[in-house]
Amino acid sequence: MWLKDKYGEWALVAGASEGIGAAFASYLAAQGVNLVLVARRKEPLEAFASSLINQYKIQVQCICCDLAESIAALQLQKAVTGKEIGLLVYNAALSHLGGFEKDTLEHNNKIAQANMVTPMNLVHLFAQPMLSRGKGAVILMASLAGFQGSGFLATYAATKAFNRVFAESLWYEWKDRGVDVIACCAGATATPNFINTKPEKADFFAPRVQSPDEVVKECFEKLGKQPSFITGTGNKLASFIMQKLMPRKMAINIMGGTTRKMYRL
Asked: What's the confidence (pLDDT) of residue 208?
């Protein structure tokens, strides 16, 4: 129950109905933390919430919200009035797989809003009370795609670079004020969205696909100890080679070529 003791009784998880978000929620529920779960789809969110309530006997509030809307953060703040949110997890993300010019301008703006602007707004709104109390935590999901140019994932990759740098910056600002901040930089993870894209294995040496539970367990092991981390041994090794040993041009070519091959683009 160390999370509840350290950060408080309530956590908000954005993008919580499946995949990594659901794994975060389950981990927190097992620690006895009450949850505010946020997602767009009502039925799967409420079904998941019911399963957590039955299994862990916690309180759960469900909020259906489009995080790509400019007022999303303010809506969430209003919806949880009276609850002391001690831990904020932002897992929600939009993406486009394919050529940048083939996606609409409207959708690119939604990706930027959901992946960058809304989490920035939520952190601003919810971290201020944490700082006043002298305790709290913020977890932002980033991605290996954000470590260099990632062809066919251009806007998504750029937003994930923002999340990592944003979290690292706040880690420094708040590390002596009782609020832990971390960017969780995941590679390929067996979420429903990832599986539904039907990716092909890029090559024999590609890092293995992790489970959401593995990502979340490692994140909580690192929380409060470092500003960002890469999940999984294989991902760490691949990132070290690409970032430290290769010219940046080569790393960008490998990333784009891998995506092209995986998705037959």
From this structure: 77
What pLDDT is stored for residue 264 in this prediction? 87
184-185-187-188 Cα dihedral, nearest 10 degrees: 40
CB within 8 A of 78, min separation 6: which ones? none
Domains and CATH numbers, the chain: 2-262 (3.40.50.720)
Give the separation between CA 232 and CA 184, rounded to whole angstroms: 11
**232, burial (CB in 10 Å: exposed 0-12, middle 13-18, buried 19+):** buried
User: How does residue 202 score in pLDDT terms, banded at 50, 70 and 90?
Assistant: low
Q: H-type helices in 88-202, by residue range?
A: 105-112, 118-133, 154-174, 192-196
Angle (CA) 207-214-126 rounded to 5° is: 115
Q: Where are the alpha helices (DSSP H) in 31-117?
A: 42-56, 72-79, 105-112
Q: How confident is the model at residue 198 (pLDDT cuts 50, 70, 90)?
A: low
DSSP helix/strand/coil, 203: coil
Q: Which amino acid is at 168?
A: E
Maximum C-alpha span of the chain = 52
Sign of CA dihedral 166, 169, 171, 173: negative
Q: Extract the tokens encoding 40.
A: 């767009």
Query: pLDDT tens digits, residue range 205-231?
Result: 466 789 999 999 999 999 999 999 999
Q: Model confidence at 235, in pLDDT bands (50, 70, 90)?
A: very high
- 210 beta partners: 189
Q: Of the candidates 202, 206, 204, which has an alpha carbon nearest to the alpha carbon of residue 258?
A: 202
For residue 204, what pLDDT is reported? 46
Residues with Cβ within 8 Å of residue 247, at least 6 apart in sequence? none
